[in-house]
Design brief:
This protein is of the alpha+beta class and 219 residues long. It has 2 domains: 137 residues, Glutaredoxin (3-Layer(aba) Sandwich), CATH 3.40.30; 49 residues, Antioxidant, Horf6, Chain A, domain 2 (2-Layer Sandwich), CATH 3.30.1020. The protein is 29% helix and 26% strand. The strands form 3 sheets. Strands 2-1-5-4-3-8-9 form a 7-stranded mixed beta sheet. α4 links the parallel β4 and β5. α2 packs across α4. The chain is elongated, with a radius of gyration of 20 Å. The protein binds benzoic acid. The site of benzoic acid (BEZ) has 8 residues, from α2.
Length: 219
């Protein structure tokens, strides 16, 4: 069966975390959440990633976004590992919870299994990251192999795009960053666009003479 992906509801699992038991939907309620997995505790790339998550926490909170990590080791191991993470990233505290999935029953349900790697016949988590909306649905997923650490600037950029598209009938073009012009969704007619974007918009003159590429600056 294919795993959960964009548009699917994350199952309302009860999970053990470094901050106690929680039900995923209770945690996700009324917020956006980054749900991210790590291949293993006490591994080099993961240690840098966990520290970076802590370092960017104020950026996530500013956007109303919560964090929830996952690794398959036990809670005692997670708590010891956090000490290393904080030592490696001075001035940062890991204040977000980290799920322990020692039975490895959670990662398949969250589509976070590494399709290639294994650990003595057991499945292991990939570097998966789901951005989950307040409706408990996955809005975007990253899937990276264990050898490649994620880029927090890209996580923030993708989040800003999702938040923008959730508020306005727009999409964000290639390499877009917050504050730059956005494109008006193709489903919006020019008539509607005039009402929705009183600040105006610019239609690019293309060889096809089709008027689908319209830029505006969100207010
Ligand atoms: C790491 O986090 O560095 C790592 C974890 C698993 C396999 C390879 C690298």
């Amino acid at each position: 069966m294919p795993g959960i992906t964009i548009g699917d509801t994350v199952p309302n699992l009860e999970v053990e975390t470094t901050q106690g038991k929680l039900k995923l939907h209770d945690y996700f309620a009324d917020s956006w959440t980054l749900l991210f997995s790590h291949p293993s505790d006490f591994t080099p790339v993961c240690t840098t990633e966990l520290g970076a998550m802590a370092k960017y926490e104020s950026e996530f909170h500013k956007r109303g976004v919560k964090l929830l990590g996952l690794s398959c080791d036990d809670l005692g191991s997670h708590r010891e590992w956090i000490k290393d993470v904080e030592a490696f990233t001075p001035g940062c505290k890991v204040t977000y919870p980290i799920i322990s999935d020692t039975s490895r029953e959670i990662i398949p349900q969250l589509n976070m299994v590494d399709p290639i790697e294994g650990d003595a016949g057991k499945i292991v988590p990939s570097r998966a990251l789901h951005i989950v909306g307040p409706d408990f649905k996955i809005k975007l997923s990253f899937l990276y192999p264990s050898s490649t650490g994620r880029n927090m600037e890209e996580v923030i950029r993708a989040l800003d795009s999702l938040l923008m598209a959730s508020r306005h009938k727009v999409a964000t073009p290639v390499n877009w960053k917050a504050g730059e012009p956005v494109v008006i969704s193709p489903s919006v007619s020019d008539e509607e666009a005039k009402k929705l974007f009183p600040q105006g918009f610019e239609t690019v003159d293309l060889p096809s003479k089709k008027t689908y590429l319209r830029f505006t600056t969100p207010t």
